[in-house]
Write a structure and sequence with these properties.
Layout: E1 2-7, H1 11-18, E2 28-34, H2 37-47, E3 51-55, H3 63-73, E4 78-83, H4 88-96, E5 99-104, H5 109-151, H6 158-167, E6 176-184, H7 191-212, E7 220-223, E8 229-234, H8 238-256, E9 259-267, H9 273-288, H10 292-304, H11 312-319, H12 323-334, H13 338-353, H14 361-367, H15 373-384, H16 388-398
Parallel strand pairs: 1-2, 1-3, 3-4, 4-5
Antiparallel strand pairs: 6-8, 6-9, 7-8
Helix pairs in contact: 2-3, 7-8, 10-11, 10-12
Subcellular location: Cytoplasm
Pfam families: HTH_18, Response_reg
Protein name: DNA-binding response regulator
Length: 399
């Protein structure tokens, strides 16, 4: 039931407005009458009506002044102006003050009822919108996760993506770093204990990621349908992304006592998100199918590829096997030799870094673990087929 306050200084008209209809039939309850502007102001502030009938010409405080005062206190209230002045200037001022309608005396009963019906419909619509907004706000984290999970499958058009991002306040703009994290479990984990362990471990991993990425605004983190943790960081560059992921991986593995597989990439076109996600998931799945020894070696290479001194002997010592045995297992499981895998990781990272117009070739070489630009250029051309300088020029021309 909507509440109505009548502000009219003429008793006959005031009573006429009150009894013009059985307002209860229109979901309206009359909560009071005021015979001047000041009285109306006090009553409105105290009673907070949904609808007000307001006479333009009242003592102490006229209708326009009353509306100006009340708009601050009752931003959603409906003002229906009742006026003896058939003057466009008054009507214009009333509309400016937020009047819902402007009715000329003598008041036509049918016109008044129609106006009140429109007013209640407007209030109902506003009420529904507020309830939906509150529900949206309360469920926003869940709705965000659901949207991001569905987005992974590429089931949205560009217009739908932008619409959902705006609705859910997802600030995914510019260059976006995407990472996929997966906890590697042992083969003996099973049953109900496995379910709870997975839930608790993923919960802990999410908290670790949030803590380490706390300095970055607008980070979005969600768990996909396969239990992978997907992280989106707007406004990050590849070097920062790799550094943060290494920190997350190191901390999580120490804290959780589990191996963590991580894959990352950059994108700036929102429509490229599903493709990038699929590629990273493939990379993560490949890592998960490896033996614990090769996985540990691979993870070590992925984290330390930028160190100039990294070698097969060093990695073998880390996983506590002989260099010969490790070399054989890497070849069997990855399909390429240790040095080929190390080169592949370095060149893949270099391909991303080269896109940065502010980085020189020798700086990229150093950042991916090559002690000299010559050695880097040779490895790059062997893998990609062209020199890094030519590749960088092509990136510039495409931009």
């Amino acid at each position: 039931m909507w509440e109505l306050l009548i502000a009219e200084d003429e008793t006959t008209i005031r009573k006429g407005l009150r009894f013009a209809a059985d307002w209860e039939d229109y979901s309206v309850h009359v909560i009071g009458e005021a015979e001047d502007g000041e009285m109306a102001l006090d009553m409105a502030i105290e009673l907070k009506p949904d609808i007000l009938f307001i006479d333009i010409n009242m003592p102490f405080l006229n209708g326009l002044e009353l509306m100006e005062q009340l708009r601050k206190n009752l931003p959603d209230a409906i003002f229906i102006v009742i006026s003896g002045y058939d003057d466009f200037g008054y009507a214009q001022q009333a509309i400016k003050m937020g009047a819902f309608d402007y009715i000329i005396k003598p008041v036509n009963k049918d016109e008044l009822i129609k106006t009140v019906k429109r007013a209640t419909e407007h209030l109902e619509k506003n009420s529904r919108s507020k309830r939906l907004a509150q529900q949206l706000e309360g469920n926003k984290p869940l709705l965000k996760e659901k949207f991001l999970q569905n987005w992974c499958s590429g089931s949205f058009t560009e217009e739908e993506v932008h619409e959902q991002c705006q609705l859910l306040e997802l600030k995914l703009e510019g260059h976006i770093g995407m990472s996929v994290f997966k906890v590697v479990r042992g083969i003996d984990d099973g049953g109900a204990e496995r379910y709870w362990s997975d839930s608790l471990i993923n919960f802990s991993l999410k908290n670790i990621i949030k803590h380490i990425l706390n300095a970055y605004p607008n980070v979005e983190l969600f768990e996909d349908h396969s239990g992978n943790i997907v992280v989106l960081i707007p406004g990050v560059n590849m070097e920062q992304l790799l550094t943060q992921n290494r920190e997350i991986k190191d901390y999580a593995e120490k804290f959780l006592g589990k191996g963590i597989v991580c894959a990352e990439n950059m994108f700036h076109d929102l429509l490229a998100f599903p493709k990038q996600y699929t590629e990273l998931i493939t990379e993560v799945k490949t890592s998960k199918s490896l033996s614990p020894m090769v996985l540990l070696a691979k993870n070590y290479i992925d984290q330390h590829y930028d160190e100039h001194s990294i070698s097969l002997k060093e990695v073998a010592a880390i996983v506590q096997v002989s260099p010969t045995y490790l070399s054989k297992q890497i070849k069997n499981e990855l399909g390429i030799s240790f040095i080929h895998y190390l080169t592949k990781v370095r060149i893949n990272k270099a391909l991303l870094l080269i896109k940065d117009p502010y980085l020189k070739i020798y700086e990229v070489a150093d950042m991916v673990g090559y002690s000299t630009q010559h050695y880097f250029c040779s490895a790059f051309k062997k893998v990609i087929g062209i020199s890094p300088m030519v590749y960088k020029s092509g990136v510039k021309s495409n931009d």
